[in-house]
Each structure stands twice: as C-alpha cells, then as structure tokens.
## 1
Amino acid sequence: MFSPFECMVAWRYLRSRRREGFISVISWFSLLGIALGVATLIIVMAVMNGFRAELFNRILGLNGHLNLYAQQGSIARFDEMADLLRGVPGVKRVTPIAEGQVLVSGPQGSTGALVRGIRLDDLRAQSPLSHKILLGTLDNFKGDHIAIGLRMAERLGLAVGSKLTLTSPRGMQTAFGVVPRLQPFTVAAVYNVGMYEYDNGFVFMPLDAAQGFFGMGQGATTLEMMLDNPHELRDITKQIIADVGKHTSQPMRLLNWQEAHASFVNALQVERNVMFLILTLIIVVAAFNIISGMIMMVKDKGQDIAILRTMGASGGSVMRIFFLSGASIGFIGTMVGVLLGVVFSLNIENIRQVLQTVTGTELFSPEIYFLSHLPARLDWAEVAQVVVMALGLSFLATLYPSWRAARLNPVEALRYE
C-alpha cells in the first residue's frame, strides 16, 4: 500500500530541522496530547471498572440478590418458606435474617449500627465476610457472642473478648411505660471486608439471639436469596411470586438488588459514560493539533511537493506521504499512551502508597470512597476500543491536509522561485 520511497520521504518530513523547528514542536505536542489522552482514558476506565466490580462483589456478597420481606411484622415459619425457595431453579442459597437498628456502646463512645441475626452456617457461607476474619474466630459465634467490623472496633475501643452494650429502639412494655431494651454482648470476632460501610456499621449476631433481642419470637425479618446468575431476575421472580402466593396468605414483598441499589447503579453508569466522553475530548483536541501541524507542514513543503510532482510523483503518492507523516504521530502517540495507561493501571495501588508516603497526606480515604484500597481492573475490550478510537481520529485528522497536498499545483508553487 505504501512504497519504500513514500515511507522514506514521510519519515524525513517528520524529522526536526532548524528551519522547520516550530512545525516539529507542534508535532511533538500532538503526539504527547494523544499519548496523555489515551493513557488517562485507560486509567480512568480501569479505576471505574475496579470500583464497580469491588462494590458489586462486596455489596452482593453481603446482601442477597433477592430479598423476601413480610409486609407487616416478621416472616412466620420462615424455615418452611426457605425450603420452598431453595427448590426454585436458579436459587443457590437462602438465608433467614433477623435485623434491626441499634445503638452500640463501648469504652470509647457510642455509634449507630445495623444488627443482622444469622445462623453460623449461613455466616460461614458468606465468603466476603467469613474469609476476612481479622481477630478471633467464628467458632464462638453463639449465645451472646457477636462479630463486629474493624472500623467499629477501633472507633469504640473494642477487641476480642470485650464487652459492649446494644440498645434497641424497640422498647419493652412495662408498668412504667416503654423501656429501651439494653443487653450486653461479647465480641467473638472482628472482620475487615475492606468496605467502610460494613466495617463500621454492621453487627452480626446469632439468629436466635437477635430474635430474642428484638422480640420477634420465632420470626425472621427477611429471607435473603443468592442466585446462580444475579442478572437474570425476571423468570426467577415470577416463579418465586407464584410459589409464595400458593404457600402462604401472609402479604409478602420481593425486592431485587437492582431495585435496592437503583440510584447507586444508575449513578455509576452515568458517571462512567460522562467521564468517557469528557476524556475523549483530550484525544479530539490532540487530533486537531495534528490537523494544524500537518497544514503548516504542507504549506512549508510546497516547493518540495512541486518538485516531487515534476519528477513524476502522482497526486496519490503525495497524499500517501503526508498521510503517513500524520498517521505516524497518531500511531506512536497511541502506543505510548497504551503502554503508560496499562502500566499505571496495573500498579496504581503501589503508586498511591508511594505518593501518600512522599506527600504525607491520605489520597484515598475509606470514609469517603467506601473501600480501603484503590481498585483497578483492565478491560482489554475497552483498551482495544480506546486504541481504535484514537487511531481512527488520528487517521481522519490527516486526510484533509494530505488531500490539500495532493491538490497543490506545481506551477503555482514554483512560479516565484
């Protein structure tokens, strides 16, 4: 497609000489702009993919894909209902949960939290939590022994074996009126899932202890279902609604994870699309730099073009020469940007740690971002999409200047020489 002669001339035009220094500077800035744009786009998309994957894995790992609630009160005979739901195709696990809001009081203060009453076997099945036990063990998770997060333990000055007091807003009715329900508990385990919301605001308690503490009797607040494929909800939802309606007359409500976290999922998607569009403008600006640099090169090389045409070079050959010059800037810039973006994305957490050490500031606060580390996940399909887009814009940017060079009249270029 390109002859050796065309490649040689295109490369000579790209090399800097004193008389053409300004044009060469523009070319270098164009190359740098494309490289930075491609690298920034790859890094930001990798970080956003990492955020999305980490948050989804942890939120969906600690919360059910489908949750069945009673419209009023608690779910009676929840074990029978759980057995029924386990028979629905696509349902992998069903966990009875008894939960409620409490005030947690420790040696160094108090904080609000959500208590989740759960059986030991079901808690062990939640690998995002059971595999993240930092202190203590789940073997003692029974009776008045509970599990709390690392952030809560640090905040309230608690450790394994420490005593804390839980206060429930669901008070006890006495002869003197409603009295808040208070009960002491012992810390059996401290977990660290790496998500601030759970490490600071959740308390896990044995199911029977939670039922007694909240006065639920033998009921459960919700039946939490984990599915084989959390993205295929329609058929499973219809089947569950039909089976539950036949089994009980108690009014029930079914909530899936997309509805429960709708604002969160939509915000992530909108933010991702907007960031992709904004960062793409960096590459577009760099492409315009290629156009301006190539137009100036064509104007500066008018005599050379005329001489090439008089020596027998065709208009197509001249067009290919200048197309090669501009496309080379885009190609080299894109490849440099991909290299920078991939290397940075793969080492972003180490880079963050170094920058924090050097500057002495916290660049990624878990209280704000909900995660204890900066995640990044490269999607090679997205990287390929960025490469194709950058190369496409770069190649398109060279077409008009190359066409102008091919249309140059040799007679007009040499008239006053």
## 2
Amino acid sequence: MTSEALNFDSLVAAIERTHSALAEQASKAVNLSLTLRNWFIGYYIAEFELQGADRASYGDKLLTELSRALRDQSVSNTGRRQLYGYLAFYRTYPQIVRAASALSAQVVPPFLLEEKVRTLSAQFPDAPALDGEKLINRLSYSHFEQLVELEAPLQRRFYEAEALRGNWSVRELKRQIASLYYERSGLSKNKTKLSATAHAKAETLQPAQIIRDPYIFEFLGLRSQDTMGESDLEDALLERLQEFLLEMGHGFCFEARQKRILIGGEYFFVDLVFYHRILKCHILVELKTQAFSHENLGQLNTYVAYYKKHEMTAGDQPPVGILLCTRKNQALVEFALGDMPNSLFVSNYAVEMPDKAAMENFLKQLEKEIGHDE
C-alpha cells in the first residue's frame, strides 16, 4: 500500500486485516500448545500406570492424588476428571505424536514416543486415519473432548472429517452429534443433500471463540473472575454444597466427592455421594453450571441405577439423585426418585431431605458470593 493510496477507510481496513490475521495466528498457537500439553499429560499418566516404580502404592487413587499434587504446583486444568480425559485423548489419538516432533525433544525423547506410537497403533488399529498434524491445527482441544466420547471409530472419523470440512465450532460439533447426524447420514439415500443441509447453517469457528475460552484463560494463567471456567465454579460450589448438606443435620453422611464408577468399560464421576442414615439410602448429587437438559437428568438416573445394582446392601432403600442446574442466577433442583414408593418417600422427604426452595436459594446465594451471577 502506497502513501498516495492510503485514506481513512483503507487505514481501517488495513488495521482490521492485520488484527484478524495475527489474532487467528495467536489463537492457533495457543490452542496447539494446549492440545499438545494435554496429550503429553495423558502420555505420562499412561507410562506411569505401566512402568511407574511406585504405581502399586496409588492404584485407583492415582488420578486423585495426581490432581492434588498438580494443583499444589499451580498446574491448571488438572482436576481428576480432566486427567482421565487427557489419558483417553492420548489413547484415542496416538498419531498426534508425529505432529509434535518440533516440541517432543523439550518434553520427552522423540525415539521413545515413536516406539510408543508403534505399540499403540498395534493395540488400537481402529485409531482415526486423519493426519494428526491436520487435526491439531484445525481442531481445538474442546473439539477433541467431544470426539473422544464417541465409542465407534468410524463415527468419530465421520465427525472429524465434517468438522474439518465445515470449520465447525465446538458448539456446532456438539449440536450435530446430539442431532444424530452420523446416524441420519447412514440412513439417508441422498447423503450429499443431507450434508449440504447440515453445513448450510452450521456455526463456524472464529479465533475470538478460542481466545475467550475460559479453558484457554486458565491455561495462560489469567485468573480473573470474569474468565472463571466451569471446573473452577463447580469446585467452589461443590465445596460449599457439601458443607451445606452436612450442616443441615438431617442424616447426611458424606462418602465421596467425584466418585469414580465403571460402566461398560468407561469411567464416570459422581459429583457428591452421601449416605442418608434415616432414609437408609445413598444420595447422589450432580451439579451442572448450565441450564437444565434431559441429558443431565438421564446421566443422573444412570448413576442412580448403577448404585441400585452395585452398591445397595441388605436393608437399604433404593438410591436417590439430586440434580442442580444453574443459568443466569436461576436455579433448578430435580430429584430422581428411582423406584422408591412415592408415598413413603414424600413423607420422609418432607422431614429429612432439604427443601427444594431452600436448595434453590442456597445455590443462588453461592453463585453471588463466588462472583458468577450474570
């Protein structure tokens, strides 16, 4: 651009282009670093489980103890549930190591990683076929979180390809998965038309969506309340909620927090587990820092069914689930009653269980104190 051609409008356009280009470059660099960091965390955990000299001392408590130690070291995004996710990410995408060659020498000797990849490739022959470098340069770690949850390799590869082709945002990927796009495509006679329809109104990923992601803020060490991520908010709320239920004095006995259960070869985590000595049953509490959805209730009912089958002992009543959801300082409390006789339960509930209105008010107050009221 010459000085003769420069006017106010072209000045604005030039600055906007520069800003957009460098913002996109910065967002990609930060996202790539975060994705690789999480992959390497999964790698180290897997190696420790296989070869750690003192691994037997930790057993099922490994991720709990590791999370506590890492938080003491101020390592962000290392809750137990997140660590388990990194391990699953590493095992699902072994080919990502080939994209980490420039970084691997700073983290772990490359020849060790290459040997590990050959081993993993033999163990998991159905791993995605798409190039690892293309995946981590085009998809954020939040995309991978959604993809890792898909059990069928072919289904996962379908959504990878479609997300790359449409430059989908994470929200769009979640929406397409929830709408059963893969299953509908399999049943459709005109797959091309269905694909065009799916992409026509799809939300695309913008650099600002990555830059403003609370997960990224925490990774970069920016701890403003305005950027508080869901994991921080959940931790703060659960700490106070646990105290609230115990202090009510109506028979709640604390058993576990982030209780890991194994269902069909996959681990899940129950936020809070109590045993109620009056009702003689387990109370499972799930807290969601989002609006209520039927998926949330379905998840809690799954946990209740698991406890009924695997944790009930002689004399126990069926377990009860409490679901708390928040949205813009509005609370919704749902009780999943299992198959306990309603007449019996309601009678006991009125005396021994927390009142729904009290729970809602308590949750609203907590959010205000923590600084999450919108």
## 3
Amino acid sequence: MMSFSLPEELQMLRDNLRRYVDTQMIPHEMETLVDGELKPEWREKFQNGMKQLGLWMMDTPEEFGGAGLTLLQKSIVWQELGRTIALPAREDGITGPVVRHILFQLEGEMREKYLMPTLRGEKRACFAQTEPDAGSDPGGMRTTAVRDGDHYVINGTKRFITGAGKSDFMQLMAATDRAKGSRGGISCFIVDMNTPGVKLTAQYQTMMGDKPWEIVLDNVRVPASHRVGEEGKGFGLAQKWLGAGRVKHGSRALGVAERALEMAVKYAHQRSTFGRPLADRQGIQWQLADIWMDLDKATMLVRRAAAMIEEGQEARVEAYHCKYFADEMAFAAVDRCMQVHGGIALTTDLPIERMWRQQRSYRITEGASEVMRTVIARHVMKAYA
C-alpha cells in the first residue's frame, strides 16, 4: 500500500490518458463549454475518446456492465482530467452516466425502474442533501420525512443541487428523526422529480460556471418502498460515496496543481524582466519549488486514502486529510501560477483565471476545509490523549 511508484498497468493508463488530454482536450479547452456545460459535439467526442481508452462506465461495477475500475485506478483518471478546464466544474459525464453508490443498493422493481435506465442513459439522477441551513452539517437538516401508512410525507428545501433541472429523479436525504441527526436520524429516498409537491424554485449562477438548483418539497408523498436501506441509515449510505468523493477531490486537485506548475515553469523561462528571465530569480524559484513539494506530499496522501478505501479499511480521517490538503494545495498552486504570470493571468485569454475560480470553490463544496480540519483535530485529540 505504501509503494512510492505506480504499477506498470497504472503507468500505462496514466500515460495514455495524458496523451489524450494533451492532444485532444487542452488545445481546445477554451472553446468546449457554453453556459458552464459541455457543448454536445465535444461531449460526444470526449465520450468516444474515453471508450477507446477503456474508461467508459469506469464507476460502474462489472456485474452491471461497467469497467469496474478500482478507486486507485479512478484516482489516476481524475488526476489527469483535472489538468484541463475543457470539462465543467461539476459532473461532466464523459466517462458514462453519473451513478452514485446509493443506486447500486436498489433491488428488484426499484433497480429496474431507476438503476438500469440510468446506466443505459435513459434517465438522469441528482443527489439532494445540502440545505440552506445544513451544508457542512448534514445532521442539522430540516427536511423531514414523516411516516404515514405506506408512504412518507416529505417537507423541506434543498439548495445547490447540481443537475436537478435535467434530472428524472433525485436521491434525497431527509430527517426521519431530527433528534438523532446524522447518528441514525437521516434516511434516503428515491423521489421522482415530477411528483406532486416537488418544485424547482431557483437556479444559482456560480462563479465556476455551473448553475445548481433549489428544490422545495411541499407535502410530497413518497411510497415507503422508495426508501433506500433501513430507516435512519441514509447518512451511512451517503458517507460511503463521500469517502470516494473526497479521494476524487484530492485526485482532481493533483491534476490542477500539476498543470499550474507546468504553466508557471514554462512562463518563467519565457518571460524576462530587467534583462533576466523570471526563472533566474530566487523569489520565483522558491514559489515553484513550493508547488512541487506540496504536490508531492498531496500525491502520497491521495494514493494512501484510495488504497485504504479499496482494501476496505477504515479511512475516514485519511479521506478528510487528502481532501483538505490537496484542495488547499491546488488553490495555492494556481494562485502562485497567477502571480508568476502577472496581469495576463487576470484575463480570460488564459485558463488560469477559470482554474482559480473552480479550485477556490472546492475549498467549500462537499466538505469545507474548516470541517475537514475539525474532524482531523478530533482524531488527533483522541489519538494522542
């Protein structure tokens, strides 16, 4: 697990994907998006590229017809794709339909109605957990699901839900016992978007380009059969996905930082001031050295977390650590890259400003840096007491 080099097959995967990113994505990255989404022609092109590379449906287990990549393999893919801004800040779908861990828990009729059509690309799903007063603190969510015979009646508001406007159904987290919070009080439900009482009430234009939605649920009746897993165990289902999601954050951040380092080094050799290239100046050299050293540390953290999760080990703290350190590291790397480039980096002629905006957002979403540090601090206080 602590090997410092990638196995040969992962090196080949990385090298093949890097060539594709360098030749087919980066040269066109300033023209692939419109309103924060991939243009249809580029989506088709990139999806075909992923199929040729054997990465189609990489998140889907082999038993469901997918490639069944390990988390370490997927981390390499996320890292390489993170080197380009050709893709949207959030879910791009170029490696196949976006299917979270929750849907693979469905059985029987529910599996046929929701999972299989999603895998075939016939339906789309969104994940609805964040609320106006419960972002980093999901245990404080106010959306409630109250049992009423063979149904649940759901009331509440979800905010910043990516893809809700194009989704056929949502994977909804709701409190079935608010007193218990995240410790046995949250349940997961599959809710069709056309269910009476489900309303899309607002769409937010973010600085990253994506446009998440607000969803209001007003006395929404959902069959009890649409609950995923046991009552009160929904947060555990989400956490299993979030652990891998934090490795994804860290992996993507590695790609962002490496691209920032590549651009900064290249520009430092090209740009001269007062008769000398920037690359000769110690102030610049040290900034680039810091990026490289932090990138090296983050790589170890990401690969350790991926390996531990893949082996079924308890890796909650390791996942928090890699998410926190890598996201903070990548933002600092892009910020330094921007500083090295000077005024030109503030224009939209270069990808740096978009990299900066996107990476800044990841220090907040899917677990703010302060929350990551708080969890890590609790671990430290207990481990060294």
## 4
Amino acid sequence: MSSTYGTLFKISTFGESHCPGVGAVVDGVPPRLHITPELIQAQLDRRRPGQNKLGTQRNEADQVQILSGIENGISLGTPIALLVANKDQRPGDYSEMRNIPRPSHADFTYNMKYGINASSGGGRASARETIARVASGAVAEIFLHSKYNVEIVAWVSSVGEVDAPGVNIHNISRSEVDAHEVRCPDAASAARMVEQIEHVKSDKDSIGGVITCVCRNLPAGWGEPAFNRLEAALAQAMLSIPATKGFEIGSGFAGTRQRGSVHNDPFVQKDGRLGTVTNNSGGVQGGISNGETVYFRVGFKPTATIGHEQQSVKARSGCE
C-alpha cells in the first residue's frame, strides 16, 4: 500500500492537510520499551510550524495523542496508534482553486490517479503528512538508541547557493543544530541562509535546499544485497518525503569524478574492530552497513506555493 512502509517495523500514515487530524499506526515495536508522550512530543515540537518567520505561518500546536500500544510509558508490543489534530483548518482558502491545478502541486496527478483529490491544501501530498513520519520516527529512534546506541542527527547543509562548510559528522549534536532557527549548526552559514530566505520571501518566492543526515554506531551487517540494499531503503524513505528531488550517500555524485585509487576506503584495525581509514562509501558497502558512520544528503525543491501569479488552466471539474 502506498501509505505503508517497512517490513518488521512497519508504519501506516493517514490524514490530509485540512482534515480533522493526521497520524500513524506503528507495528512491530518490541514490548517493554520506555516510550512516553513527552519523548514523541519533543520531536514534533522541533517540526511544529510557525516557530519563526522563515517557514509556514500555519498555527498548529501539534500535540500527539497515544491511542494504543503504550501503557504507563511502556510499550506493550502491540500496534501503537498516534494522532495529531489539525486545529488550523482553513478549507475555504482553497475554494477558488478547486478546478485549477496549481503548478508543481499534486492536484492534477492525484486526480488522474484516483479520479478525485482533496479539495483543501495538498491533501496527502502536503507537508502535514510528515507529522506521522516524525511521530513514528521518534518511536523508531527510541528503539534504535536503547538497543544499539544509534545516534541520528540531521541539519540544513545548504539553502539555494549558500553552503555550510564541512561539519564533523562524528561529533555534531542535535543541540548544535537546534541552536539556529534555520537548523544549520554553522553560525556564519546560518546567518547567510536566513538572509537569503528573507530576500526570497520579500520577492514572494521560494527556494530549495539540502539536508545532511548522519547515523552513528550502526553495527556492521545491516541491509541486504540486491533490491533491499541499505542505501536503497534509505533512498526510498527519504524520497517519499514531499518536495524531495535527490538522494546521495557517502561521496555521492562527487565520487564519480574520482579515480578508484582515491575513492576506495582502505581497511585498518580501528577501536578493536576492522574499519576504514576514509568513508567515501558512506558506511555502506555491497548494500550492507560496514560499521562506519552512515551519512547521506537529501535535496528539496523550492516550495511550490508562492506569492507570484502563475500560469494554469481551469479544468472542467476536479482538475480533469
């Protein structure tokens, strides 16, 4: 199903942009894990809209409700249902565009696939859907950290033409990322990013960017050969996020400009285990984790909703 992801650990998300609520059902969570609403809410608070003037000004509290699967802060091993209510529902804002497919939105394609699409906002294509991912991801992170001490940190590494300098993937912390409203840990780069975003917003336009993510302490041996390679699973998950346009792991496309003698990661004894001197592979070789830090980048296109007049056509009904 298009709204379900995973095998042993599986999530199913639901809800549209301006419906009563969005959420997820998380299945495959082991019993006796310490999971509280506060732990999940902490991640939703980081995502919550309206925190600053740079992003959407939609006013939502995004308070999570745990409907099942957890009792007294302990997981039961049964499906965990999570719900976040949509408080700022404004379907009337979209009435004039009911039969006009908006450029680079999913109005037209959804209608071609289903014969109907949500009349308000972006429906399932809206960024509101990512609430379910954040909530269920918080559950996954609790398990990964408690069982394997896995640490996951992501940050904005570029906005438009503004790039952040190299960040040490071995010690960057989430608190360093959250110290800046644009979620870039480098203060000077963050200031330039803010300046560029404000300039673009003053032109009633939008701009894209790149997120870099590191996953530390993954054991060697995760992933499968061929179609279920670890990097393929990561790419599928990342590219299913709205507005994504690119994924690269390790050296990525820059590695295509190198020779094998430079790109290869030599093996050495490291910290009592077999490791590599460099990590151009991004922690994955042959589709399987090698014990080094996994790191990847995801590219996001400019937001399709802008203040400029744009070209479209009026369809007969429902964007047909």
